[in-house]
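Quick one: structure tokens for this chain, please?
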Amino acid sequence: MALPRILVLVLAGGAGGRLELLTEQRAKPAVPFAGVYRLIDFPLSNCQNSQLSDVWVSIQFHPTSLHEHLANGRPWDLDRTTGGLMTLPPYRGTERGGWNTGTADSLWRQAELIREYEADALVVVSADAVYKLDYRDVVDAHLGSGAEVTMVTTEVAADDAPRYGIVEVGEGDRVTGYAYKPDEPATTTATNEVFVFSPGPTLDRLEALGADVGEEGLEDLGTHLLPAQTKDGLARAYPLDGYWRDVGTVESYWRTHREFLDEEPPLDLDDPRWPVHTRGGRHSAARVLDDGQIENSLLSGGTRVSGNVRGSVLSPGVHVERGATVVDSVLLPGTRVRAGATVTRAVLDDGVDVGAGASVGGDGDITLVGRAARVADGTELSAGARYPEPEE
């Protein structure tokens, strides 16, 4: 019996506005995580470990930052003569050309290519969450269910539920109710932006919906498509029992880093049975110099620490000078904290330079400093600050 033909579509084209300064100059899936990784490494590594080798990545905002990281797909075994990695940028020249206005709209614009592939199952995933999942297991469950869509679900906190698509699940994992980012969620069972679709029926339904609401009105998958599939009794749930975290906001990005500082982190990123791969860097070993002190932190290659670092994540090339203190913070590549400066509960983007004696952040909301910003000597940025301040 032939194996099912499976196509994976990674939706990596969103603006990522909830990550604020972190996505001003990079695509959201290219945002660093846990020192050496990028967010898109998680779905791509899931593809590799699931032995799925036909992966299309839909890109739009700041595409260079993603192209540079993806290259030819080699870290995820996607550099193949036939199939492998393909990027899908916005285009012109047909009636479906133009900017994507949402995830369902993106699917509609690529419908002709998807039909030509003749997949038995279409796996559609986002690229702003940290998790491990065998997509092939979900596909197998979907193909035997008679469903038009299988939604991977997870449990979320009640106060966080309005951020997600919320489902109600009945007997046999049938989805009996679906609401997209509801003000008053009926449950705390959320879709985690991993879907397996039956391609033909789903694309046919998109065409019909587009005729009803107009092409601009398709918006996101949760706006019209998933509610229609649920209403017709053609949606199934696939519970994910393991770890999953959406890191699409500054607060969740910072908080998820904190979880990976535990003695036993929620995911073993070096597990030989399910490794997370990334594009290799060119950094020497991390070095703790002089009076440098490290406590409960992640240090990437090329970091130099002569100060005091506690409860923090240091990306490649970060320097913490003598007498500087970094506490409960995430420092992205190339950041420098100069002598006597303090950084507390903050996220510092690439190449930030914190001047001598400066103070960034404190107890309270997370402080965010944008790429290559210079915090002058002796400056005080209070907790929750955004620097430079966003333009109105």
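The chain has a mean pLDDT of 93.
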